C-alpha cells in the first residue's frame, strides 16, 4: 500500500468524516431550528472561503471582490423568488399589479426585459452559476491576459465590488436599492419561511457544500493544483514550461466565483432576502478573513473559519457591539502576523505533533509495545 | 520532407533590435545557430546577452528584426507557444519549484496536459514515471527523486532546471549561466551532460567561465554593447584584437 | 443647445462644477500623493490611508472647536495650526504603525493589505468611541467663507481656492523634496537598490519609516482639506480609499505628475457628470471608465517603458 489514495489521503478522509458528521448529524441534532438556520447562513460563506483557498491560498490571486459573485448568485435566486411572490393576485393593491413591490414604489410600470427570464426556474438555476462565472471570466480575462496580478488585481476587484454596490443602490427601481430584494415567500409553491423548509434547506446547503469541497479537493490534488502553487511561486518558470498561465488563473477565478454564487443563492433561500450589504467592499474583505482564519491552504479550514468567525461575530455583536470592530481588526492583524496559515497551520504544527507524542507515550506504557518505538533511538 | 529546407539554420536571428526608452540593449544583431551545435555567447556585463535570450523566448518583444526557428517566425508568438515550438529556457538563478519534490518538478514539465482540462485530468502513468526517471538519471538526480527541491545544493538545482527543460525534448535549449555556483567536479559533469544532449538538440549557453566555455563550445559569439563583436571558434575569438580590447582594454 | 441649456449656461455650469470639483481634486491629490509615495517605496497598499486622513480631519475639528471656545482671537488663523497638527498627528501614528506592523510584512504585499485593513477597522472604532458616531463639521473663519464672483454666473468659493493653493504648494514641496533633498535621494536610492543603499551607509529602515510617516502625514493634511468639502465621521475615510488607489494606478505608480493629472481627470469628470445625473451614477460611470481604461492599459497612463 502506498500513501497515495483516491482523492483524499487517509487523514483527510478522517477530516472529511468529522466535518460531515458535525454539519450533517451533530449540529442538526443538538441546536434548535433558529440557530441551525444561522449555521446554515454561516455555511453559505464557506462556499466563498473554499473558492478563496484555491484562488488565493494555492494560486496567490487575492480577490477582494468575492462579494460580487456571492451577491450575483444571491440576486439571481432572489429575482426568481420575488417574481413568484409578485403574482397579480398578491399585488393587486399596487398601481401596476404583477410586478415586484419596490418597482411599483419607484414608479416603474413594466417588468424590465432582463427580469423576464427569471420567471423560469430552470433558467434561474443556470443563471445562478452562469452569470457570476461569466462576469468573473470577463474580469479575469481582461486582467490576467495582461499580466495584472497581486495588489493591482486585489484593488481592481475591490473597485468592481464598490461599483456594483453603488449601482444596485442607485437603481432602486430595478434592484430594490439599499434594502435589497425582500419579502421572499415561496419556491415553486413551497413556503421557505417555515421551520420545516429551513430544516430541509439546511441539509441541501450542507450537502452542496460537501460536494463543492470534494470538487475543490479534486482540483487541489490534480496537476492543476500543483501548477497553481507553482505559478504562485515561479510564474515565469511555468510559463516557460509551455503553459498559458492566464488560462489557468482565469479558470480558478471562475471556479471560485461559481462556488461563491452557489453560496449566495443558498443564502437567499435560507435567509429570505438579498441586499447590497453582501456585495460591497466590506463583506468581500470579510470573506477573505474567513478563509485566512481557517488557513488559506486548507479546504477544511475554510469551512471551520467561516463558521467560527461568523459565530464570534454574532455573539460579539449581540453582547458588545462596540468591541466587534476591534476584534475583527485584531483578527486581521493577528492572522497575518502570527498565524499566516490559520487554524489549519496551528493544528498541523502544534496539535498534531502533541497528539502523536501522546499516542506514542500511551503505546509505550502498554506492555509488549515498548520494544518497537525504542528501537528507533 | 522537412517543413524547412535542409540548408536553413535551426535558428536565424536577423537585424534584431530592442530599445528601452531609447537605450538600445540589443542593436541590429544577427547570428545563426546550426542543428546539434553548442553555441556560447560571451561578453562583458551589460552586453545584452540575457536580453538576447529574453527576445528569443518571447519574454521581451523586439522593436525590430526577425527570429526564425525551423522556418517559423517567433516574434509575435506568445511564450508558451514558443516553448511548444521547441525552445527551452533556463534562467540565470535556478528557477525551480522549491516546495515540490524533484519528481514533481520534472512531472510538471512533462509535455502533456498543458491546457486547463488536460491538467485537471492528468494521470501519473507508466510513461510519465519512465520518462521522469530517465531524465533524473541524465541529470544525476536519480537518488533524489523524492527530495524536496528546496534542500538540493545550488549545483543540483541548476541540473534540475536543465532536466525540466530536457523532459520537454526541445530542439533548442538556452541556458543562462548554467554552471554558476557549481564545484569543479560539477562543472565537468555538466559539460559531459551538455555533450550528451546535443546528439538531438542544439544549445545556446551564456557563460563567464572560460575554462567551461572551451570545454563545450563549438562556436563562440562575443557580444558588446548589443552588437556582435566577433564570432567563430574559441581559438579565433580569443586572438581577435577587438575582443582583447573589450575585455582588457579599459 | 445641450439639453435644456443654452451654450452660455452650459459653459457656466461646467465652469462652476469644475471649480466645485477643485476641492475634491485637492483631497484626491493629497491622499494620492501619500499613497503613491508609500506604494512606490514599499509596493504595499495602505488600506488604512483613509483613516489617517480622517485623523487629520478630527484634529482640525478639535482645533476649530478649541479656538472658538477658548481663544477666539486666534480663530481666524487656527486653520494653519490645525494643518500642522494634523500632519504631526498622522505622521506620528504612521511611524508607529510602520514600526509595529508594516516592517514585519515587507515582501508580503497582499498580507499587508489585509493587516492594514484590520488597522483601519480598529481606527474606525477608536474614532467612534472617542468622537461618537455622529458626523462633525468645522467652523470656518469668516475670511474663508463666501466666494469670488468671476462673472454674474460663475462664482468660486474662497475655501476651494485656498485648499487648491495649499495643494499646489504641498505637491511642489514634495516634488522638490524627492528631487533635491538628501532625504529624497536616499528614498530613491533605497527604492532602486535596497541592498546597495544599505551598503553605502543609508539607514534603509529609517528611510522606510520616514517615508511611511510622510505619506501618512500628507494624508493628515488631506484630512484638513477634507473638512471643507464634507463632514467628518468615523467611516468617511473608507469611502475614499478605493478612489484614491484608482487615482494612483490610473496615473501610473511612481509618477508624481501622473498622479496629479489623473486626480484632476477623475475628480473633474465626476464633478461635471454629477450635474447631469445622480451622484451615484456619476461615480459608477467614472469608476467604470477608470477600471475599463486600466484593463486596456494596466500600467497606467504615465509610465515609462522599462526592462522588467
Automatic annotation (TrEMBL), chain A:
<dbReference type="GO" id="GO:0005886">
    <property type="term" value="C:plasma membrane"/>
</dbReference>
<dbReference type="InterPro" id="IPR017778">
    <property type="entry name" value="ABC_transptr_urea_perm_UrtC"/>
</dbReference>
<dbReference type="InterPro" id="IPR001851">
    <property type="entry name" value="ABC_transp_permease"/>
</dbReference>
<keyword id="KW-1133">Transmembrane helix</keyword>
<feature type="transmembrane region" description="Helical">
    <location>
        <begin position="151"/>
        <end position="170"/>
    </location>
</feature>
<feature type="transmembrane region" description="Helical">
    <location>
        <begin position="46"/>
        <end position="72"/>
    </location>
</feature>
<keyword id="KW-0812">Transmembrane</keyword>
<dbReference type="GO" id="GO:0015658">
    <property type="term" value="F:branched-chain amino acid transmembrane transporter activity"/>
</dbReference>
<keyword id="KW-0472">Membrane</keyword>
<feature type="transmembrane region" description="Helical">
    <location>
        <begin position="121"/>
        <end position="144"/>
    </location>
</feature>
<feature type="transmembrane region" description="Helical">
    <location>
        <begin position="199"/>
        <end position="219"/>
    </location>
</feature>
<feature type="transmembrane region" description="Helical">
    <location>
        <begin position="13"/>
        <end position="34"/>
    </location>
</feature>
<feature type="transmembrane region" description="Helical">
    <location>
        <begin position="240"/>
        <end position="267"/>
    </location>
</feature>
<dbReference type="Pfam" id="PF02653">
    <property type="entry name" value="BPD_transp_2"/>
</dbReference>
<feature type="transmembrane region" description="Helical">
    <location>
        <begin position="323"/>
        <end position="347"/>
    </location>
</feature>
Automatic annotation (TrEMBL), chain B:
<dbReference type="InterPro" id="IPR051120">
    <property type="entry name" value="ABC_AA/LPS_Transport"/>
</dbReference>
<dbReference type="InterPro" id="IPR017781">
    <property type="entry name" value="ABC_transptr_urea_ATP-bd_UrtD"/>
</dbReference>
<protein>
    <submittedName>
        <fullName>Urea transport system ATP-binding protein</fullName>
    </submittedName>
</protein>
<keyword id="KW-0547">Nucleotide-binding</keyword>
<dbReference type="InterPro" id="IPR032823">
    <property type="entry name" value="BCA_ABC_TP_C"/>
</dbReference>
<dbReference type="GO" id="GO:0016887">
    <property type="term" value="F:ATP hydrolysis activity"/>
</dbReference>
<dbReference type="Pfam" id="PF00005">
    <property type="entry name" value="ABC_tran"/>
</dbReference>
<dbReference type="InterPro" id="IPR003439">
    <property type="entry name" value="ABC_transporter-like_ATP-bd"/>
</dbReference>
<dbReference type="Pfam" id="PF12399">
    <property type="entry name" value="BCA_ABC_TP_C"/>
</dbReference>
<dbReference type="InterPro" id="IPR027417">
    <property type="entry name" value="P-loop_NTPase"/>
</dbReference>
<dbReference type="InterPro" id="IPR003593">
    <property type="entry name" value="AAA+_ATPase"/>
</dbReference>
<feature type="domain" description="ABC transporter">
    <location>
        <begin position="11"/>
        <end position="250"/>
    </location>
</feature>
<dbReference type="GO" id="GO:0005886">
    <property type="term" value="C:plasma membrane"/>
</dbReference>
<dbReference type="GO" id="GO:0005524">
    <property type="term" value="F:ATP binding"/>
</dbReference>
<keyword id="KW-0813">Transport</keyword>
From TrEMBL, chain C:
<feature type="transmembrane region" description="Helical">
    <location>
        <begin position="109"/>
        <end position="127"/>
    </location>
</feature>
<feature type="transmembrane region" description="Helical">
    <location>
        <begin position="156"/>
        <end position="178"/>
    </location>
</feature>
<dbReference type="GO" id="GO:0022857">
    <property type="term" value="F:transmembrane transporter activity"/>
</dbReference>
<comment type="similarity">
    <text>Belongs to the binding-protein-dependent transport system permease family. LivHM subfamily.</text>
</comment>
<dbReference type="InterPro" id="IPR017779">
    <property type="entry name" value="ABC_UrtB_bac"/>
</dbReference>
<keyword id="KW-1133">Transmembrane helix</keyword>
<dbReference type="InterPro" id="IPR052157">
    <property type="entry name" value="BCAA_transport_permease"/>
</dbReference>
<feature type="transmembrane region" description="Helical">
    <location>
        <begin position="212"/>
        <end position="233"/>
    </location>
</feature>
<dbReference type="GO" id="GO:0006865">
    <property type="term" value="P:amino acid transport"/>
</dbReference>
<dbReference type="InterPro" id="IPR001851">
    <property type="entry name" value="ABC_transp_permease"/>
</dbReference>
<feature type="transmembrane region" description="Helical">
    <location>
        <begin position="77"/>
        <end position="97"/>
    </location>
</feature>
<dbReference type="GO" id="GO:0005886">
    <property type="term" value="C:plasma membrane"/>
</dbReference>
<keyword id="KW-1003">Cell membrane</keyword>
<dbReference type="Pfam" id="PF02653">
    <property type="entry name" value="BPD_transp_2"/>
</dbReference>
<keyword id="KW-0812">Transmembrane</keyword>
